[in-house]
């Protein structure tokens, strides 16, 4: 994806859809699940619940004091998201999939930061359990972050362009 304009459009759409869908599902969870018993689907594979998470992933950091929690859960992630946005628009060799993946990470991170700033917690509502394995309780923003990381994985594991040309010369 070569032009600034095309990247900007993709980033705005992906971040907007991610934040909008995440905020909508958190609203629905609050309206329909808060104070209600957990709802189970497909046996007990999918559980819908309502949890206020004052920490980060898997409630990490929820026990931090009032000085460290905002720094480590709001300021530091916000700075990382700004750096990621800078990278998206300055790195010349990102393809469309990489831009989408990084925008998913930005959208998910941004939506969770908004929740922490506005409400002091993030609403989590989804829990999966199958084949003896289970997840922590998560939300759509967390799924967007994980999807972005999953999409980026093949790109992170392939050799850098300079390494690829060296390998081709060695094979010849």
TrEMBL record:
Active-site residues annotated for this sequence: 124, 142
Keywords: Aspartyl protease, Cell membrane, Hydrolase, Membrane, Protease, Transmembrane, Transmembrane helix
One Gene Ontology CC term in the entry: plasma membrane
Its membrane topology: Multi-pass membrane protein
EC number: 3.4.23.36
Record's keyword annotation contains Transmembrane helix: yes
Predominant localisation class: membrane
Pathway: Protein modification; lipoprotein biosynthesis (signal peptide cleavage)
A GO biological-process term: proteolysis
Transmembrane segments: 71-89, 96-114, 134-157
One GO MF term attached to the UniProt entry: aspartic-type endopeptidase activity
Subcellular location: Cell membrane
Catalysed transformations (reactions): Release of signal peptides from bacterial membrane prolipoproteins. Hydrolyzes -Xaa-Yaa-Zaa-|-(S,diacylglyceryl)Cys-, in which Xaa is hydrophobic (preferably Leu), and Yaa (Ala or Ser) and Zaa (Gly or Ala) have small, neutral side chains
Domain of life, source organism: Bacteria
Family of this protein: Belongs to the peptidase A8 family.
Function: This protein specifically catalyzes the removal of signal peptides from prolipoproteins.
Protein name according to UniProt: Lipoprotein signal peptidase
Lineage: Bacteria, Pseudomonadati, Bacteroidota, Saprospiria, Saprospirales
